[in-house]
Specification:
4 strands; 87 residues; two-stranded antiparallel ribbon; two-stranded antiparallel sheet; Zinc/iron-chelating domain-containing protein
């Protein structure tokens, strides 16, 4: 079951972003930019050629820094380069 992609879910991700990232998360950001469309395109997402980047990367909010914090929160499994090892 996939987590919902709406503003209520985004608020929940923002509130829970103070919690630690799951220990079984591996990988790194590949700049796919898909998380920047959850649920609507972020104002700070910039596109240069085929590459996406954050115009406020150094000061981006915790919910951006930690996405996906848990496997259940991952709404972009087909493009996100973060993965969760089975424990």
């Amino acid at each position: 079951m996939t987590a919902p992609n709406n503003f209520k879910a985004k608020i929940k991700r923002t509130i829970t972003s103070v919690l630690p990232v799951a220990k079984n998360r591996t990988g790194h950001c590949s700049n796919c930019g898909q998380c920047c469309y959850l649920p609507k395109k972020c104002l700070f997402l910039k596109i240069k050629g085929a590459k996406n980047y954050c115009s406020i990367y150094k000061i981006r909010p915790l919910n951006c820094r930690k996405y996906p914090r848990t496997e259940a929160e991952c709404l972009t499994p087909n493009t996100c380069s973060f993965h969760f090892k089975k424990e």
